[in-house]
Write a structure and sequence with these properties.
The chain has 245 residues and is mainly beta. The protein has one domain. The chain contains two helices and 13 strands. The strands form three sheets. A six-stranded antiparallel β-barrel has the order 3-4-5-6-12-11. Strands 1-2-9-8 form a four-stranded antiparallel β-sheet, with no helix packed on it. A two-stranded antiparallel sheet has the order 10-13. A hairpin with a 2-residue loop joins strand 8 and strand 9. The chain is globular. 42% of the residues are buried.
Length: 245
Amino acid sequence: MKQIFLLLGLSLFAVQSYACDKCGNYNNDDFQIKKVSVKHSPEIGATIWEITVKGTAGKTTPTPVGQLNGAPVLGYVFPTSLKPTDVGFGNTEGIVALALTSHPDFDDTPLWDENNDGNYGNDGIVWHPHWVILTEDKRVEGGLAVKQFDPKDTTVVLPPTNPGMPMYMDSPGFQVITKGNTIRVVVPDYRMNNKKDFSYDGVAAYMQVNTGGDGGHGGGDKPMLGVYKVYSVASGNLSLPYKVK
């Protein structure tokens, strides 16, 4: 696992200056991480995850493109040392990350009505959480992608709150709060196997959906959801040096 993080860290630094017009549109202080923390609160039986930025957390959201293919996704991401089985996935290789995302072109939280308007299918722009399994992927400039699987593979285990996509992704519905320069999410202990002793880091990134055809990010084969630009890394090297307090 340490070797995986080392390779990914090197990959991230190799692409910091990659030319990407769409990615650069969002490269501002709202995605420059100053501090990251995960604190356990025994009073409420939950962990409180926070990313603090130079600008205003969550203020910048993607500009819609009007379709799923090529849809932009912005994220504040916590890569962790948790195991996939800790958060409801089957045993698989990859990095468990909690991603707080915004994407106006689609909604992938069918169980939750984040803007409370009675429509469960129009909330993609509202910041919301996903558990994802990340793997190294050299097809994208950011070097990472959400792990995919064959939809016909009946051995794949996903949490029951997954959005129904052929990726290791869950839509757990945890509360996300943005206030000033901090974005935070509250995760009940029982929703991650009561783990309180894991390591983590913080990443701000631009991601993009690729479903094939025109509108994607460049030509050729691309992952369904890949990382194309990393704006900042809390540790500076994706070494996961932080521990739950």
